[in-house]
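The following record pairs a protein chain with its ligand, zinc ion.
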Amino acid sequence: MTRTGYVWHEIYSWHDTGTYAGLVPAGLHVQPHQNFENPETKTRFAGLVEVSGLLSHLHRISAEPATLTDILRVHTPEHVARIKAESDDRGGDAGDGTSPFGPGSYEIALLAAGGTIEATRAVLDGEAENAYALVRPPGHHAVRDQGMGYCIFANIAVAIEWARANRGVQRIAVVDYDVHHGNGTQSIFEADPDVLTISLHQDRLFPPDAGMRHEQGIGEGFGSVINIPMPAGCGNGAYIDAIDRVVAPAVRAFAPELILVASGFDASAADPLGRMSVTAAGYRAIAERLVVLARDVCDGKLVVSHEGGYSAVYVPYCGLAVLEALSGVHTGVKDPFAEIWDSSPVHALTPWQDEAISASAKLAEALQLIVPAAATTRGAAPR
Ligand code: 3YP
Ligand code: ZN
C-alpha cells in the first residue's frame, strides 16, 4: 500500500459556470440547463471516494490558495487583474467566450492552482508517495495571458514553477490524458528543455487546430513537446498502447525528477464532448502504468491534477479506478457500467490507431537523441 495524498474542497463546486445548454447559452428556443462544465462530475467523484471507503485510506491534503507570486510565475499581470476585477464584480469569461465564471471564481481558481501546488509539495516533501488533486476549475488550456476551454489559471504549470522555485526541482514531465489537447501547458513550456509535455488527445478536437504531431517544441525546447493525436473511436487498447509505446519510453529517456498528470476523464465511453471509449478499467490500467513509470524514474513521485470529464454518472468510477491504482487500495466497489462497455470490440487496437501511435513513438525515440544528457544524468546535474 502506498501513501496517496488527496485534495478536495467543497468550494471547488461553487465555481459558477452559469445557465447553459451544454456548450451554448440558454435563450429563446434553447431551454436553460447546465454548462457541460458543472460541479456534478467532481462532487459525485468526491462522493464516491468517501462512500467507497477509500477516503479513510488517503492522506488528506488541505487546499491552500496559490499566492499572487505563484500565479505570476506563469501568467501575465493583466490576465490576473482582469479575472480578479470581473470576479469581484458580477463574474465574466476566462478569455475565449466559452469559459464563463461567476463572482468569487478568482479565489476559487487560486485554490485550484494552490491545491495542485499542495499536492506537489506533499509529494516532494515525502508526506505522500503520490497524490490526486481533485480541483476545479481545470487548467491545461490556460495560456500565459488568458484562460480558455473552461480553464482560468494553468494549475499544473503553476505547480511546476512553484516546485522549481521552492524545492529546487529541475526536470519535470507532464502526461496529459484528457481527451482535449493540453495546449496551455505546452505553450507555457514549449521553449523550456527541462519540462517535457506529452499530450494524448482526440485529433483536432479542441483547440481545433492544436496538438499536431509536428509541434515538437521551440528553440532549446525542441524535442520536449510530444503530441499523440489519436483518431476518434479509440478504446482501452489504443490508450494503453500509446502509454506503453510513446509515454513510457519518452519519460524514461527524459528522466524527470517528478511526473505531473493532467487527468481528464472526457475520453470515457460516456462523455458528451469526446468521441473515445475508454472505460474505468482502461483508466486503471493507464494509472497503474504511470505508477510503475514514476517508481522507475523518480522514486514514485507522481502528482495527478483533475481536468475535464463530463459524464456525471461515469466520471466517479473512472476517478476511483485511478485513485485505487495510485494507492494500491482496492475498495471492492465495482464499475457498474463495466458489463456494458468493457466487452466492446472498440478496445482492440486497429491498424489506423496503430499507425497514429507509431508516428508519435518516433518522437519518443528521437528524444533520446535530442536530449542525450537526460538519459545519463537522470536530472542530477545542474544545467
Ligand atoms: C471547451 C469548449 C469546447 C470544448 C471544451 C473543452 C474543455 C475540456 O474539457 N478541456 O479539457
Ligand atoms: Zn477535456
